[in-house]
TrEMBL record:
GO terms for molecular function: DNA binding; DNA-binding transcription factor activity. This is Redox-sensing transcriptional repressor Rex. Homodimer. Residues 16-55 bind DNA. Residues 80-180 form the CoA-binding domain. GO terms for cellular component: cytoplasm. NAD(+) binds at residues 90-95. GO terms for biological process: negative regulation of DNA-templated transcription; response to redox state. Pfam families: CoA_binding, Put_DNA-bind_N. NCBIfam families: PRK05472.1-3, PRK05472.1-4, PRK05472.2-3, PRK05472.2-4, PRK05472.2-5. It is found in: Cytoplasm. Modulates transcription in response to changes in cellular NADH/NAD(+) redox state. Its main location: cytoplasm. The gene is rex. It comes from Eubacterium cellulosolvens (strain ATCC 43171 / JCM 9499 / 6) (Cillobacterium cellulosolvens).
Length: 217
């Protein structure tokens, strides 16, 4: 029997479940019903139950969900039950901001290298990580078991860099360059394209909708 296909919509909601459950744990909440979770998530209780039933359910009728257990199981589904080594290619403002984001480690992502081709940045420290030059990248990847690379490069450099990363064993690319790398890397490499301008455009649309509905003036 083939593996069950999970919809992209469900996968998109899983990190939100994980985040909200973490906040509940921090608040000392041990158990929660799908109805209570729906109020936090702004998703119907029925949708939550359907989403979780894709992976076994994890709850009991009239008993709800054990918050710690459910978060632990979602962590396993998302692959967060083990550490992931990550490098950042492009040590400009965005790259350094990503390197400085402390919550990555909390979610099992460990930044172990930062690379750029600007010699003025060579050996500058960002959270105890020295910025290395691009020509040092292949040797670094050969010596370190790195799975994920974040690309904060200009569009014109991203495709060539993606090919170098794939040739040196990178299995996943978090791409901030304004180009879709899914078209140029093998299907054996996972790619998540992040288009910041598109996100801002969606925000603009939501703002316009609120104005048209008379909810804001």
């Amino acid at each position: 029997m083939g593996q069950k296909v999970i919809s992209k919509a469900v996968i998109k909601r899983l990190p939100r479940y994980y985040r909200y459950l973490g906040e509940l744990l921090d608040a000392g909440v041990e158990r929660i019903s799908s109805g209570e979770l729906s109020q936090q998530m702004k998703v119907t209780a029925s949708q939550i139950r359907q989403d979780l039933n894709n992976f076994g359910g994890f709850g009991q009728q009239g008993y709800g969900y054990n918050v710690y257990y459910l978060r632990t199981e979602i962590a396993k589904i998302l692959g967060l039950d083990r550490p992931h080594k990550m490098i950042i290619i492009g040590a400009g403002n965005l790259g350094q901001a990503l390197a400085n984001y402390a919550k990555f480690e909390k979610n099992s992502f460990h930044v172990v290298g930062l690379f750029d081709n600007n010699k003025a940045l060579k050996r500058k420290m960002v959270r105890d990580i020295p910025i290395m030059m691009i020509d040092e990248l292949p040797g670094f990847l050969q010596k370190n078991d790195v799975e994920i690379a974040a690309l904060t490069l200009p569009k014109e450099n991203a495709i060539d860099m993606a090919q170098i990363l794939v040739e040196n064993g990178i299995h996943a690319i978090w791409n901030f360059a304004h180009t879709d790398l899914n078209l140029v890397v093998p299907k054996t490499v996972a790619v998540q394209n992040v288009h910041l301008s598109e996100s801002l455009m969606r925000l603009s649309y939501n703002l316009k909708t609120l104005e048209e509905e008379g909810k804001i003036k």
